[in-house]
Design goal:
Layout (H helix, E strand, L loop, with lengths): L5 E7 L2 E7 L7 E5 L14 E9 L5 E6 L17 H11 L6 H8 L8 H10 L3 H14 L7 H13 L5 H18 L5 H11 L5 H10 L6 H13 L3 H13 L6 H13 L3 H13 L6 H13 L3 H13 L6 H13 L3 H13 L6 H13 L6 H7 L6 H13 L3 H14 L5 H13 L3 H10 L9 H13 L3 H14 L5 H13 L3 H12 L7 H13 L3 H13 L6 H13 L3 H13 L6 H13 L3 H13 L6 H12 L23
Parallel strand pairs: 1-4
Antiparallel strand pairs: 1-2, 3-5, 4-5
């Protein structure tokens, strides 16, 4: 027989005795002897009991006590049994001990005098971290535990677990939840308003939310403030502000209120949907319903009024926010600065920026970008120094780098370089992205002397130069035909590193060809072949263009044939370049044959290819062939451009003026054009 250990408190002879009794489960008269307290029963009880003496011997050495059994489970003030923590921990441990824990769990539960309660089952579900294990335990309780019945609390717990689990696919989650609702219907369990709230969060603002309304009627429930809040948020998350506003109107009619979080969500959604009148209405209702706006509320209102051009109203709202004790955060300051910058109020923008810094609110990159934009738009970029000085304590390396990059992108290379020089003396270690942006900006502006100087000093700021940086400068030098500097930089790369890559070689070939230095271009190509890099199709295109432009058609044709020997395939640029080369020397038949070969090889001509050949045919007086070629390009679905129509106009007028059709290759920088 299993035993429970119990204590008995008795009053005997005016004294309170607390003694340990051993009794069977159903024994209520417990005899014992005094003073040795020899106990007749053999089963220990674990609960403290109170009793009264009902019989005693004349010598008072033996008494009988009637014990009134207490409730087996302790209850809370409402009379609900309190969960047994030791039992909950034991069950969780068993469930997490193996892949099939339910036989062990069933064996353990048979040892209990009192089975698991729904409240304890809910707590166990809460502690399990796997949805499928929760489902198995949920089903186990109703099928394997005698007299156990799930209630709305356990169903709510399971629904909540499934709704938040990231291990379930959306479709799988929805199927499980619908199955649980069917189970509630089958078992006759009536859900609570909490069930509805959970389901609204699960279904969102889609068509399935109508099921929630049906259940409210079926279970005879009343929607409360929190239910309306859940419904409103569900519609907002599904990007349906119109339905959300309808819910808001309904809850106002029924006298419910929202919290600040729900008000802000509604205001933000309506403002983004340009529902200006509704935003004003909700904002006024909010203040009347004793829900004080916070800094997020004011930020939403400032953003909306700034967007619709009411900057004075934005300023009034910002002032009201500060007067009511709300401390503007970074988002609030940025929103107000954005509204001022949009209205091109430079003075007020800088004044507010100074207030922002004075109030120890660190500006972000977005703050500086808005100020930069308004300064550029108003032609007051010189005031950037004032902005930098105001925020001197926050001018970090990353902020300097951002300003340099932004100015470079906006095309203000001189301002970017001046600010970059300030950054150079401000920090011992440089920002790699800023240096690359500055280098690119200088090269785009044609300031190759400054770019070369920067490239030579970059190591002083603990930044290692790479091939991309050198290629940027090489490309700029090539475009400006600064061949001496170009060659010197190439030699420096070979001697000191970084080693030239395929892009370096292609830039050099193209640059030498552009300057008419055919011998140097061929030399670079040969060095490429002998290097770790191997020529690609762009390398061949650059060399063929160089040779053809400078009159060496035969060598260009030989290089064209070499492409296939190297395992490469000519592309549209290759064919177009060589067709142009043949056209320059009036080898029209070769040019036409090359177009046929191009089509046979599956390489589709583009409009530039057709323009080149059309020009060749028109110049040589082969009008009929030019007309046929034009028909062919139309059949291929190509759209004629202005150069095409210029050639057609010459065909109709009989004028054989030479026209140059310019197309710049994005890689080599060469111009593929008809004859000069």
């Amino acid at each position: 027989m299993r035993h429970h250990h119990r204590r008995l408190a008795t009053v005997h002879g005016g004294r309170l005795f607390s003694i340990r009794l051993f009794a069977t489960k159903h024994r209520y008269h417990v005899p014992f002897q005094s003073p040795n307290f020899q106990l007749v029963n053999t089963r220990p009880f674990a609960t403290k009991y109170s009793g009264r003496v009902v019989r005693e011997t004349s010598d008072r050495r033996s008494i009988a006590v009637r014990v009134e059994t207490a409730n087996i489970l302790p209850t809370d003030i409402r009379g609900y049994p309190l969960p047994r923590r030791d039992l909950i921990c034991k069950v969780i441990k068993i469930l997490q001990s193996s892949s099939d824990p339910f036989p062990d769990l069933s064996e353990y539960l048979q040892t209990l005098n009192v089975t698991i309660t729904p409240a304890e089952a809910s707590e166990i579900l809460k502690c399990l971290n796997h949805p499928h294990l929760c489902l198995e335990f949920f089903r186990f309780c109703s099928s394997d535990i005698p007299n156990f019945h799930h209630n709305s609390y356990t169903y709510n717990r399971l629904l909540l677990i499934l709704s938040k689990s990231s291990r379930l696919r959306d479709s799988e989650r929805l199927d499980l939840i619908l199955a649980i609702l069917d189970d509630m219907e089958r078992c006759g369990v009536r859900g609570s308003i909490s069930t509805i709230n959970i389901l609204i969060a699960i279904f969102g603002g889609g068509a399935d939310v109508e099921k929630c309304f049906d259940l409210v009627k079926k279970w005879d429930l009343q929607m409360n403030s929190y239910t309306y809040k859940c419904l409103l948020q569900a519609y907002l998350r599904s990007n349906n502000p119109n339905k959300a506003f309808e819910v808001y109107a309904e809850l106002r009619r029924r006298g419910h209120k929202l919290d600040i979080f729900a008000y802000n969500m509604l205001l933000d959604a309506l403002a983004k949907d340009n529902k200006v009148d509704q935003v004003y209405k909700v904002f006024e209702d909010m203040k009347r319903k004793y829900c004080e706006p916070d800094e997020y509320t004011y930020t939403i209102m400032i953003r909306m009024t700034g967007k619709i051009g009411k900057v004075d109203e934005s300023l009034a709202l910002f002032q009201e926010m500060t007067e009511k004790g709300c401390t503007p955060n970074l988002v609030a300051y940025n929103t107000m600065i954005q509204a001022l910058a949009k209205s091109r109020m430079v003075d007020k923008t800088i004044f507010l920026f100074s207030k922002m810094v004075k109030n120890n609110c660190r500006p972000s990159e977005f703050t500086y970008s808005m100020i930069l934009n308004v300064l550029v738009a108003e032609g007051q970029l010189g005031r950037l120094d004032e902005v930098v000085e105001l925020s001197n304590k926050y001018m970090s390396k990353s902020i300097y780098a951002y300003l340099v990059r932004t100015l470079s992108k906006l095309g203000h290379a001189s301002e970017a370089h001046r600010l970059f020089c300030n950054m150079w003396g401000f920090h011992d270690e440089g920002d790699r992205d800023a240096y690359k942006s500055m280098l690119g900006s200088l090269c785009d502006a044609g300031k190759t002397t400054e770019a070369l100087d920067l490239l030579s000093k970059i190591h002083e700021k603990r930044i290692s130069s790479d091939t991309v940086m050198y290629n940027t400068v090489l490309s700029a030098l090539g475009k400006l035909k600064k061949i001496s500097d170009l060659y010197d930089l190439y030699e420096k790369m070979k001697q000191d590193g970084p080693s030239p890559d395929i892009f370096s070689y292609n830039i050099l070939i193209s640059s030498f060809g552009r300057a008419g230095r055919v011998a140097e271009a061929v030399q670079i190509f040969e060095e490429l072949e002998n290097s770790n890099c191997k020529p690609d199709i762009i390398s061949f295109n650059s060399l063929i263009n160089c040779l053809g432009k400078n009159g060496d058609i035969d060598e260009a044709h030989m290089r064209f044939k070499e492409i296939r020997e190297k395992g490469l395939s000519p592309d549209v640029v290759t064919y177009s370049t060589l067709i142009e080369c043949f056209g320059k020397t009036d080898k029209i038949e070769m040019a036409c044959r090359l177009l046929d070969e191009m089509l046979a090889e599956g390489c589709s001509p583009n409009i530039v290819t057709y323009n080149i050949l059309l020009d060749c045919l028109e110049r040589s007086g082969r009008t009929a062939e030019a007309v046929d070629l034009y028909a062919k390009l139309k059949q291929q679905g190509l759209t004629p451009d202005s150069f095409t129509y210029a050639i057609l106009e010459r065909l109709q007028s009989g004028s054989h003026r030479k026209v140059r059709v310019r197309r710049k290759n994005p890689i080599t920088g060469w111009v593929v054009s008809p004859l000069r």
